Amino acid sequence: MSAITIGFARIRFELLGYFRRPDTVFFTFLFPLLMLGIFGAAFSSLGDVGAKPDGTGGVSMAAYYLPGLVAAGIFLSGVQNLAIDIAGEKHDGTLKRLGGTPLPPASYFIGKIGLTLVTAILQAALTIAFGVAVFGIALPSDPAAWGTFAWLFLLGIATMSLLGIALSALPRSGRSATAVVLPIVLVLQFISGVYLQFTALPSWLQNIASVFPLKWLAQGMRAVFLPEHFASAEPSGGWDLGLVALMLAVWLVVGLVGALLTFRWTKRS
């Protein structure tokens, strides 16, 4: 069997293991949906935001938060889930046992990235469906917007998955993986325009966030789900989708190089 065939077989194995861990499912799979429900309900009394001078074109707070939470879902599924999961497997001996089998590393990576892809698709679909059903969020009607969503989603999955694999080398033990990874994930969400309006942050914090990929993925998702005039609220006054693609591609390369340099079947001594 080829490495690709084995890798696709491992996707099913990874999915079964993932959905048998309630804590992982809650903090990576259901977390964006939960946050959309909280923010949508808590700020519903504020009415629409972002209206034009003539009073048209505004969206509800739930609709405003949806793009950032879709981006956060990809980020959580890739970076947080894989970093903690692989670190745990490395330090409980699972990877060492796999390393003693004919399993190629490429097959292992395919299984992990396939897990991220499937869970992120289900998560995004559930979050969007929840927003439409509960808060009446209007989805884009332009096919071009959904085309943008497709390439952003796939590029985001690839980037965040590789970064999660690379980040898994950081924790010194399986027990410390959550304590190491969660603060990084939470801080990046708060400074990248997921929970707070990006331009409301201090300029120095915006500059820091602009180095990392979540800010660009969230900006790209806003270009998909928000009306065009919301682009004027971005730091540059536009969606800058070309720059979004470039920054995500740069971080994809960073994640790939990091994963190749740091991944080992055994833990560091």
TrEMBL record:
<keyword id="KW-0812">Transmembrane</keyword>
<feature type="transmembrane region" description="Helical">
    <location>
        <begin position="149"/>
        <end position="170"/>
    </location>
</feature>
<feature type="transmembrane region" description="Helical">
    <location>
        <begin position="241"/>
        <end position="263"/>
    </location>
</feature>
<keyword id="KW-0046">Antibiotic resistance</keyword>
<keyword id="KW-1133">Transmembrane helix</keyword>
<dbReference type="InterPro" id="IPR052902">
    <property type="entry name" value="ABC-2_transporter"/>
</dbReference>
<feature type="transmembrane region" description="Helical">
    <location>
        <begin position="109"/>
        <end position="137"/>
    </location>
</feature>
<keyword id="KW-0472">Membrane</keyword>
<dbReference type="InterPro" id="IPR047817">
    <property type="entry name" value="ABC2_TM_bact-type"/>
</dbReference>
<feature type="transmembrane region" description="Helical">
    <location>
        <begin position="64"/>
        <end position="88"/>
    </location>
</feature>
<feature type="domain" description="ABC transmembrane type-2">
    <location>
        <begin position="23"/>
        <end position="266"/>
    </location>
</feature>
<dbReference type="InterPro" id="IPR013525">
    <property type="entry name" value="ABC2_TM"/>
</dbReference>
<dbReference type="InterPro" id="IPR000412">
    <property type="entry name" value="ABC_2_transport"/>
</dbReference>
<protein>
    <recommendedName>
        <fullName>Transport permease protein</fullName>
    </recommendedName>
</protein>
<keyword id="KW-1003">Cell membrane</keyword>
<feature type="transmembrane region" description="Helical">
    <location>
        <begin position="177"/>
        <end position="198"/>
    </location>
</feature>
<dbReference type="Pfam" id="PF01061">
    <property type="entry name" value="ABC2_membrane"/>
</dbReference>
<comment type="similarity">
    <text>Belongs to the ABC-2 integral membrane protein family.</text>
</comment>
<keyword id="KW-0813">Transport</keyword>
<feature type="transmembrane region" description="Helical">
    <location>
        <begin position="25"/>
        <end position="44"/>
    </location>
</feature>
